[in-house]
Amino acid sequence: MLKTVKIEITGRVQGVGFRPFVFTLSQKFNLRGTVSNNENGVIIYLSGSDKNIQLFYSELIHFPPPVAQIKESKREEIPLRKFDNFCIIPSIKKGKLNLTLTPDFAICDDCKKEITDNKSRRFNYPFTTCVNCGPRWAITKTFPFERENTSLDSFEMCEECLEEYTNPTNRRFHSQTNTCQNCGITISLHNSKSLQLNIPPNEIFKQVAALIKKGKIIAVKNTGGYLLCCDANNKDVITKLRKSKKRPHKPFAILYSSLSLLESHLTINYSQKKALESTERPIVILQKKDFNGDLAFTELIPGLNQIGVILPYSGILQLLANELNIPIVATSGNLHGSPIISNNVQAEKVLSEIADYFVHHDLEITNPQDDSVVKFSTKYQQEVLFRRSRGYAPNYFNFTGKTNQKIMAMGGGLKSTIAYLPNDYLYISQYLGNLEHYDVYKRFVEICNYFIELFEQKPDVILVDKHPSYQSSQFGVEISKKWRTDLFKIQHHKAHFASVLGEHHLFDCKEKVLGVVWDGTGYGDDKNIWGGEFFTFHDHQIDRLTHFSYFDWLAGDKMSKEPKLSLFSLSDTEMKDPIATKFSDSEIAIYRSIKKRNKLKTSSVGRLFDAITSLLDICDINTYEGEAAILLENQITEYDLKKCKSYCDVSQNNKIDTKQIIKNAFYDLKTGISKKQIILNFLFTLASIILKVADQNNIKKIALSGGVFQNTVLIDMLKELNGNEFKLFFNINLAPNDENISFGQLMYYLHIINVSKKLRKS
Description:
It contains 24 helices and 28 strands. With about 750 residues, the protein is an alpha/beta fold. It folds into 4 domains: about 1-90, Alpha-Beta Plaits; about 185-370, DHBP synthase; about 375-490 and about 740-760, Nucleotidyltransferase, domain 5; about 515-705, Nucleotidyltransferase, domain 5 (2-Layer Sandwich), CATH 3.30.420.40. It has a 10-stranded mixed sheet with strand order 6-13-7-8-12-9-11-10-14-15, sandwiched between helices. Helix 16 crosses helix 19 (about 605-615). The longest helix is centred in the C-terminal third of the chain and has 22 residues, at about 675-695.
């Protein structure tokens, strides 16, 4: 018996080859009808036998296209309709967008083969893509995801591309990013004086490879923005790049041409390999232990025993890597602290003093993105996101909340992101950076406005950090007044805690949850600088349980940039010798005077890390954010918990003596204990404190967030010490650092402020 059904699919189903997949499936089961995108996802009308429709639906739901993610599917029988065949019809948008946006996907194996096959018509064409790969968010202007809604709209398909696009048996059937050498994006090579070199497009990467081998720096416009590239074994050119980019010590990412080349240099495990080859294709931080290649490590990763490695994720990078077959530096095209550049004119203006040559192309990048960064802990393979950007943004898939309000959360200030809830889905922007930099703040404002234009609605509620000086908070207050929205200020560390509660759906948990939030800085409810916090969550309320004992916050923001100031703040008269080596007599007199009259205090574990690092003469001045903590962890490759001891216990009333930790570390240093063992004792102390506080308060669930929990040795120690006694929850889909603040603000509002308001009304 014939019947007609209407099927609605939501989730990541646009820009992933879903409609052509549906078409092919309809042919397999002899069904007629239509498929199209709309503002909610994909809508399908099918007419055929009941059995075939059921088989179609089952295969569609259980075996969707490789990069698709189905959230919900609805099927209903409707009055019988007659269709002559099955076809893909143009998208019809009848309302505001309510769908998952599509991130960028790394180049697939099929496209990779084509660009290296001299018999293929896409041989050496760097913008080769198909329904399974290529840029999406980077080129999106609006949705539904159709070519006319992307920056590829200005490139009209040639006859051959159009034939592929309309051929149901072709991999590029209805591929919105389909182009080729004849009709597609033009690539060109320019010198630093903006002069275009007369080189055929298919010879450009061979020429660029030769220039890199000669010690030149090349600014390459990739699919997410410009990358600065040079030979990763040329000490002189890397030193030059550091100097001109104003990035003296921060490690550079290294691009390997293939996994096989990487594995010939370095042993990598399953988790790392899986991440390196994923469609997100992040930078993966690896230990360089047993490295077997030739890299200028002193210049690439000063003082570090770990390297950030990435594999080619676009045709551009793949073709360049193929010509070189050596590792190269591939770092963001910007000045240190500024956002990644994506505009040709701006690139030449800003980068001409850095780059010797430019590889430009004429595809507009509407959403520039840095590469994402992940790391895995050594013992337990706990994945930690360091930066969530290309490949992950702008979606958050794990959201389950419901509200009629349109909410925008402005995040923090240092590692800023924006979270927006305009419909049934939650969107979190790519990593934006430090808003103290004007260009970053400008991009922050642009993304905020872009979200509002994309979803065609302004927020009803604005959420900001309590810190009055954060640019994100000030902007939030400004637009709240302009649009007459509700405004809520949410404490920084409570937002961190809420981010983990939200990720693991713990807001409905009946038992208490301990929140451990450790980072460098955050404006506290008592107007001090928090950062070593313990909270409890119960019955939709967050309370501060305890914290590391306060010590003096000295010299404002300078303290976060000079670890030796944290040591000075935590030192006593017994530590005069290490202090005397780091400060002049006049500086000591000045800071002592400041200490005497200082009223601003901090509980920051981030600053405690700084103090230990300075005490051990590892780092006194940070040249990049978090340098001291990174160098501290860098000293450790393995550990034995049986040889570790704690520098501080937790009193019965939950007091934690911060200065005692420093004092005991100092005693060990004086008695000749190795720096490595002191660091291990310090990390062991921190892990032990967490479990002791949980035990004393009879709490079995522990949620951990904040930048300190990017330390993978601490994570492994904590897991090993814990065994199965407590249930540990970490940020998993978000970075533990301030990138999760916008998400945490939104979770805090939905599950604490909103619930509180409802209770008051009842």
